[in-house]
Amino acid sequence: MPGRPWRAELGRLLEVVALVGLVVTQPLLDVLGRSPDFFLFHRASRADILLLVALIAIAPTLPFALLGAVSLLAGRTARAAVHTLLVGLLLAALAVQVGRHGTPLRGVPLLLVAALAGAAGAAAHRRWRAPGRVLRVVALGPAVFVGLFVFASPASAVVLPRAHAGAAGVAGPGAHPPVVMIVLDELPLVSLLGPDGRIDATRYPHFAELAQGSTWYRNATGVSGWTPYALPAMLTGRYPAEPYAPHYAQYPDNLFTALGGLYEIKAEESITRLCPPSRCEQPASPEQGLGVLVRESGKLLRQVTAPVDSRIDPENSYRELTRAEAGLDAAEPVPADPKFRWDTLDDNQPARFTSFLAGLRPSSRPTLHFLHLLMPHSPWVYLPSGAHYAAPDDLPSDGAGWVDLARQRHLAQLGYTDRLIGETLRTLRASGLYDKALVLVTADHGVSFRRDWQGRGMDAINHAADQVAWVPMFVKEPGQRAARVDDRNWEHVDLLPTIADHAHIRIPWRMDGRSARQAPRERADKRFYDRPGQPVTITGGVPSPPATPIPDPLVGTRVGERAAGGTAKVANLAAFRAVDPAHGELPALVWGTVPAAVPDGTMLAVAVNGTVAAVVPVVPPDRGGRRFAALLPDDRLFTAGANRLDVYRVGADGALRRLALS
């Protein structure tokens, strides 16, 4: 019959649509649907998101359809063979994803099994009609996946926001001071503490300076280990109840809407978009538009279809733009501290902080200056001096040796964060805002560096709540000069009521928190939410500082010529040939591999220009081989130009044998 070839061709097209939907559309929309923060970070409009979804649902099928149309020119036999080949390839790609989630296979073994599965599936499809009929029904899948994304996923709040402007607070009698609020990210209180339980003034002089003039709520805890839940709770005064996107459409009643009727709002948000455009100036933001969404979705597709696991934290891709990238003018005032390296940090300083700092100016109208800064959140790439270093994406953060390196890198970046706090305090004083303003500095949550329980999920909460839940919380009231310590049971839902009390604003909605100006809550336990609406009870008080690691006696010593004995590969060895500290880049992280014969736990001494900078263990082998990695935090060891890197194997008797590097 004349119409039969076209019906057959339509059937083949539907089969391809079904398989492409399973291989591309479903996994991409599933991940993106659970990541509304991705769209918020890139300030994506509703039109951009819908266009992206349409491209994901339609575009991947077009090359296959075109190939099928071209193969028709070669005749029915060739067309059938091409279609069978396409079905086999798509089934193999689907088998890779299924195998990665359902089996321990990875890499080449998984590819081989997937190829066999694809060949078997193609043969079955060619021999029997039933597989083709099933696939033609499954061709409805892409439409279903799009519907779930638009109407039922967490990202639907960004696509279909509710029309609710948010309730404005009611101004009461009394002064309305400027409010300066900095929310840091992934900062446990214990990271700031010295052995005496106070802020370590030697390592973090500016946090100590802040504590000396403010009220330190030492028993303060966040309410969630995930920013999209933690920050809305802080700014609404309510515990997380639903897995909503951190968007003003889902949280219409928040700090910004409460103060926005009276206060001018200067908000620099990172992962959230809680301040509605009608209330906030639009700051310099990350790259926007459909192009960046398509590009980032392409990277995501490579991750979800690869035969190996990805260690990349989605939030880590939210890199702040440099000032040059954002096109910002040089911010004033210029810091007085030459050690801050402000002029050389223009190439790597987060633009969001720069814009926030530039806005700290007195105004005739009460102003809220808000900054959520992804510091000292991973990726850890800054030394305390502000120098930037490169690091591979696949370094683990847990396990023997690795968790110690992760904590060391975290503390180094915290040292850089301390400099940013110092610059904020200096700018506030120079502008005359410091005495007048209510200044709040805190973090949304912490992170555990306890071995086998690293991170901030429920396992970490159950075994290291003191590192995940307890965070720094400093409140400097207007005119306050003396330090105070308050050990009340502070939970971060108390933040908004406390701000409202100091700003003399009545909040027109029910809050779970209570102001620090009220009597402390009677219960001593804490509420923590790994999942909204499912509180976990945490007990305990002000955490004790962790044990201070004893530095290896070799660190800081000079090393002369030593006998050679063994080899090692250093991945970034070439970076030592031309170091330019003036540009703020240093090869301060060294990583590589040693031969398989080297036992686990073998200590290696890493020296720069003849001085030992670190002593680290060889860790048990993983996919990257028998590896080692060392942070070299003292940037004074580096000089401009060529630098010498040496790696020594430390014997049981303490003797050093130099390894030949490649």
UniProtKB/TrEMBL annotation:
Residues 202-505 form the Sulfatase N-terminal domain. Pfam families: Sulfatase. The chain crosses the membrane at residues 12-29, 49-73, 80-99, 105-122, 134-152. It comes from the Bacteria. Keywords: Membrane, Transmembrane, Transmembrane helix. This is Sulfatase-like hydrolase/transferase. The lineage of its organism: Bacteria, Bacillati, Actinomycetota, Actinomycetes, Micromonosporales.
